């Protein structure tokens, strides 16, 4: 690259990535523990829902994909050839779609949990669903 990057900027980027990878490690650990406990915890008389480990796995895969794409984009921005700017834009768009899917998945799980906790009453989830639809249509 033709431009020189300041050491302060590089330190900031490294710090942000260190925090991002640390939080991802916590997320991966909690997801694996959730899946393990759900499948290997033998509680008698307890009906298990398979939606929680499935959603946990989906969120883990989406989070991993987003982290990998973010790392590739940063690598391309720092060391990539000059003609790669359009590929960086495409990767950023894909990352935005992945993060949106992550948000939709987590919000859907939240509404489902709300529905289950309130005894399968649909009146309770009408307002959160309307708010989610408005929020996603607005953005």
From TrEMBL:
Transmembrane segments: 12-39, 51-73, 93-115
Keywords recorded for this protein, A-Z: Membrane, Transmembrane, Transmembrane helix
This protein's name: Uncharacterized protein
